[in-house]
What we know:
Order of helices and strands: HEEEHEEHHEHHHHEHEH
Number of domains: 1
CATH class: Alpha Beta
CATH superfamily: GTP cyclohydrolase II
CATH topology: Rossmann fold
Structural class: alpha/beta
Amino acid sequence: MMISNKVRDILIDRMTILKQDHKQDICLVGPVKLPVQLDGETVTFQWYTWLTLDKLPSDKEQLLESLLTADLASAQQSSVLVYGDFNHTEEAYIRMHSICHTGDIFGSQRCDCGFQLRQSMKMIVKKGSGALFYLANHEGRGIGLFTKSLAYILQQEGYDTVEANNALGFPDDIRSYEEAIRVIKGLRENPVTLITNNPKKIAALKAAGLTIHDHIPLWGGESDYNSFYLATKVEKSGHILKSEMSITN
């Protein structure tokens, strides 16, 4: 079935093709007004999602027509929640949040991901400008949901998070931020302040071309269920406790 001219005109106006030499094009869609319940209040974010155009046309009209057969539901896409005048404000907070099916959706206390997701949204709103990137291919620090479940079984047998990933043949962290950085540059030119406790993430983002003005810590959500997990973050993955983290680079 063909998309009508009216529908096509509405959608094309909200589609941006991000191009870069020797890289696959990315289609960024948005903004969509997204009212979110946050601490009992409704906060309206601007929601964008994006798609790397692997084997899909970069022409907007052709792309819309190809969606019926693209089977996008079989592969999760990433998105970003934007708050405030993100494009123009001098200072803005960025949270690069790795999808966590168990923590973000089910509220699992085996990790601190659900806490970090909600808390970073609150920090962005309080700051007045920022963006939360929800990165779909980052589950289990890049190994995927199914493999993460195998790693969890090993953790139940006493392995820590790093040992479990290594035992399955993976490095500790195989996440890539290249697509997210290209999207940031499509939304904002000024440097950003990164919300993270992870100096390796800061280094990886800088190496991938993100201009970081500053970074601030996000630590909390501790419980008896995740104390070993959080300790491993500090001891083996280099995470820095809030009390130890320098605010400026």
